[in-house]
Amino acid sequence: MKKKQIRLTLIILFxxxxxxxxxxxxxxxxxxxxxxxVPAYSHIYIGNKAxxxxxxxxxxxxxxxxxxxxxxxxxxYYGTKGELIKQYLDKPLSIPPLGSTRYIVLSKDxxxxxxxxxxxxxxxxxxxxxxxxxxxxxGTQSGQGISFTSRxxxxxxxxx
Length: 160
Hints:
Elements: H1 2-25, E1 31-39, E2 43-46, E3 51-54, E4 56-62, E5 70-78, E6 84-87, E7 93-95, E8 100-105, E9 117-128, E10 132-141, E11 144-151, E12 153-157
Antiparallel strand pairs: 1-9, 1-12, 2-3, 4-8, 4-10, 5-6, 5-7, 5-9, 10-11
């Protein structure tokens, strides 16, 4: 009789443990703000002679929270050597729930180089879904086209 109780207890504990694990895996990590690093490429190299292939870069910032606005405090563009090239904001910008904004680096602007990046800082007055922040690179030369994306990476997290 004791063996049956022990087995039943173990089965129940296992099921509760599994349920808690599934629940933890389905949690969304909300935040009050982050600093993001977003890779960007104003050009890439092609061919045996490593010729430059110029690209237009679009930085896309999408507020995916259905209830809360987010505020961008800075959107800065850096070059391959880490030098600040351009600050896109001179005052904070609010993005409403499910809204988005974008910033463009034209293909003729080679200053960023193949190791360019954006640093994006955002915050929210309430816990919110972190935005999707991506760079989209596209270029055409000699009848050929190329396009690809890079996703932002959190480098600092604001803690509530």
